[in-house]
User: What shape does this take?
Amino acid sequence: MAVFSGPLQALIDELGRLPGIGPKSAQRITFHLLKVAPEDALRLSEAIVAVKERITLCTRCFNVAEGGLCAVCLDERRDGTKLCVVEDPRDIASVEKTGEYSGRYHVLQGALNPIEGIGPEQLRVRELLVRVEDESVTEVILCTNPNLEGETTAMYLARLLGPMGLTVTRIASGLPVGGDLEYADELTLGRALEGRRVIEA
Amino acid sequence: MAVFSGPLQALIDELGRLPGIGPKSAQRITFHLLKVAPEDALRLSEAIVAVKERITLCTRCFNVAEGGLCAVCLDERRDGTKLCVVEDPRDIASVEKTGEYSGRYHVLQGALNPIEGIGPEQLRVRELLVRVEDESVTEVILCTNPNLEGETTAMYLARLLGPMGLTVTRIASGLPVGGDLEYADELTLGRALEGRRVIEA
Assistant: This one.
């Protein structure tokens, strides 16, 4: 009995394919599911099917949606002059949580990564340019990740959008709030210095 | 849009109930499942249902089984005179991997934990005593975890089994192979000293 019997091992294998779940976690979750009430396990199983059947991408901004437009695009109170460009639908949730933004979004569905073969054609760049032209956008906020791929993508988009006569901004890099100078890496601290602001007293 | 739309949030919530999966992991897995091929997601969903429908507990040793007896109990080549007592079916896989054991098992389905209200009646202790009497067991190996609950359970079982005229053994505690004296805690090192063995040269 080197492995577990059929259905158990099958579930361990399937769970092990998920991101961030190693063989031990997969085993732990499998035995947890074995113990819970059948209706609880069934609910998880059905939730997976429901997501695959009902969730689509918004036809306008490529956020997740339930057919047609997403909740943000459907919301008439949103400021249509601002467009926040993110890599992933999850990033929208992060921006929303700040409560600092009331404009619309555009999800690129990734970032430029030549090594992995991801160029502008693999991202929703063309759709972004069409939206900027068609909708009354006055500011595009480049909210891609502050890592190599995200920065490259932001620079690339800034060059494309620059000549179109609108404000193109990039989110600030710097020390995280509650952080500590001692533990900041020199790149981040350098950016924080570079992006310093006048304190109005 | 403080949360994600219905089916997405439902799946995030369901995944978040699994052991070792926090809200961020649940979100990450949900968006991963959104991206994979529908048949891959369906396979996971069906694997969960299959485990709940087909996996039962062995009627003899309480290991996981597919109806009736488990693979170990069905295996006639197993040494029926030895009985290894473990807390959880997963522990059987750990013991099997060592290749050092060819006897049978008995799964307690937990360990004594008075604070959580787990006494001998909540565990498969009565069934263990019946097996020891009915089957031709000559050695019981107490293979519960070397923590407070596991040690208490082992001591309790040793007292019950002692008068029944068979050998009762406990797995050794000591330094892990490949370990380092410097990093061993004093309790473990103390046990290692206590359990020292004569080297036969």
About this structure: The first helix of chain B runs from residue 6 to 16.
